[in-house]
Amino acid sequence: MEAFETALAARRERGEAKETRIAEWCVGRALRALGRVEEALAIQQRLVAEWHAGRAEDAYVEEELGECLLALGREAAARPHLARAAERLAADAWLAEHEPERIARLQRLAAGR
């Protein structure tokens, strides 16, 4: 966790907007892995709001937001995020070739299965 937080601080210091968002995502992902899901959820929700405000989306943020909601037992709320993530990740040729199980899992979860 300390390494992710250090990296985040460095990105903020340099004023690197895109890299800062990635570092924030990493902190949120690590928090979920540590069982601090509410904190992780807050980070991912803020990132999604920032992306949407800029009329953009990030499949990885959508995926992680969905995973946080699933971890909290909020399956219905997770589905739209997982569906968006599945759609965008499936469009990535490298991921489609190398991580088809990941995409299939997201599609199943998005469909409520």
Tally of DSSP β-strands:
0
Specify the number of helices.
7
Shape: globular
Count of domain modules: 1
User: On the 0-100 scale, what is the average pLDDT?
Assistant: 92
For the report, how would you describe the main beta sheet? none
In angstroms, what separates the terminal alpha carbons?
33 Å
* CATH architecture annotation: Alpha Horseshoe
Briefly note the CATH topology name.
Answer: Serine Threonine Protein Phosphatase 5, Tetratricopeptide repeat
Highest-level CATH class: Mainly Alpha
C-alpha-based Rg, rounded: 14 Å
The portion of residues assigned to helices is over 70%
Structure class: mainly alpha
* Secondary-structure element order, N to C: HHHHHHH
Which spans have pLDDT < 50 for at least 5 consecutive residues?
none
Strand content: under 5%
Notes on the protein architecture:
The chain has a single domain, classed as Alpha Horseshoe (Serine Threonine Protein Phosphatase 5, Tetratricopeptide repeat), CATH 1.25.40. Helices cover 82% and strands 0% of the residues. The chain is built from seven helices and no strands. The chain has helices spanning 2-14, 17-33, 37-53, 59-71, 75-90, 93-98, 100-110. α3 packs antiparallel against α4 (59-71) and α4 (59-71) runs antiparallel to α5. The model has no long low-confidence stretch (mean pLDDT 92).
